[in-house]
Amino acid sequence: MKKVIILFSMLLFLNGCENADTIEFNLQTKVGDNYEWIYEIEDESILIIESLESELENTLNGSYTDYNFEFSALKKGVTNITFNYIDENNDILHTMVYEIKVDALKNIKVIDKKGSYINKNLPIPEIDD
In terms of residue numbers, what domain contains 27? Predict the structure, then answer.
């Protein structure tokens, strides 16, 4: 009986992790490059920016700025979030586009992602309750 309860609890937990009404992107820039990340939401009636924070981090490989973008679901639909890595002249070095689906319960899911990032692999966003 304990195995059934534990298994059910694990399934409930795993299912709960997939259903969330916020999504967070963590993007980095090297300090001294004079670049920053900006975003654009294709349809702001579906998703809205909840918070944007930047924090300086120091590591053995150098310093970088951590940009944390958090978006909240507003209603059902599909939209894109575009991130551009720009310099002081607004020239774009990298672009990433995430296609986001929000269901009727405001659960967020990444449908597709494309583009280029400074570390070659596109970051995987965190989806939170």
Answer: 20-128
